Structures are given as C-alpha cells and as structure tokens.
C-alpha cells in the first residue's frame, strides 16, 4: 500500500525558511502527481502546490514567489522550499498523491487518494 511520510516542519520566525520533504513508498510505479496541502485551525484545507511527473507546477496565489515545489520522480519524493515565511503560513502541512485511477486532466482535491500524516509549521516571533 502507498505510504507518504512528511518531514521538515518546525517553528521559525517571520521571514525565515523551512524545507519540507515527502517520501512515498510501497509502490513501484511513478505517482502521476503529488502535492502539498495545509490546514490551519478554523480554516478549511487549501492546496499549496502540486507537481506532476513532467515538472509542471501549480501554486496557490499567496505562496507564489515564496514557495518552490520540486520532485524526484524515481523516488516518488517531493520537497517544498518555503522562504519568507509569514505567520499566516502556520498550519499543518500534508503531502498528497494522485490515485492510480486518475483519468487525467486538472485534478480536483478528491483525486488525491493518498495522504500523509502531516508536519506542523509554525511561524511566530
């Protein structure tokens, strides 16, 4: 069974940086697409960034220019470099992967069939 495990979360001051990683295991095939989501208390889950096997990316408007998603297709691994962090970036960050039954096209949140347990990011002074 596919497992996703996040790492790299922590506590930083505003303007600081963190690098999140997500390693997929339990599957021999490349996952079609992977991404990062986040959820803060009192807010709904939001998509942060995603990347497919070609390297095409999509970012949330409020992280463009500050966050960068990268991947290693051979290892079903993705990273999220987060720079210039703001207090409003504080959230639990989740790694997710498109299910193998995905038919293609722009994915919806429901198309992400695999999820990690999350890693906490806290930005405060």
Question: Can you tell me about this structure?
Answer:
The protein is mostly beta strands and 125 residues long. 0% of the residues lie in helices and 50% in strands. The chain contains no helices and eleven strands. Strands 2, 4, 5, 6, 9, 10 and 11 form a seven-stranded mixed sheet that branches. A four-stranded antiparallel sheet has the order 1-3-8-7, with no helix packed on it. A hairpin with a 4-residue loop joins strand 5 and strand 6. The model has no long low-confidence stretch (mean pLDDT 94).
Annotation, overall tally of beta strands:
11
Shape: globular
Strand content: over 45%
Class from secondary-structure proportions: mainly beta
Main β-sheet, in a few words? 7 strands, mixed
Radius of gyration equals 14 Å
Mean pLDDT, rounded to whole units? 94
The first-to-last residue Cα distance is 40 Å
Q: How many DSSP H or I helices? A: 0
List keywords for this structure.
four-stranded antiparallel beta sheet; 125 residues; mainly beta; seven-stranded mixed beta sheet; 50% strand
SSE arrangement:
Elements: E1 3-7, E2 10-12, E3 18-25, E4 33-39, E5 46-52, E6 57-59, E7 67-72, E8 77-82, E9 91-98, E10 112-115, E11 119-123
Parallel strand pairs: 2-11
Antiparallel strand pairs: 1-3, 3-8, 4-5, 4-9, 5-6, 7-8, 9-10, 9-11
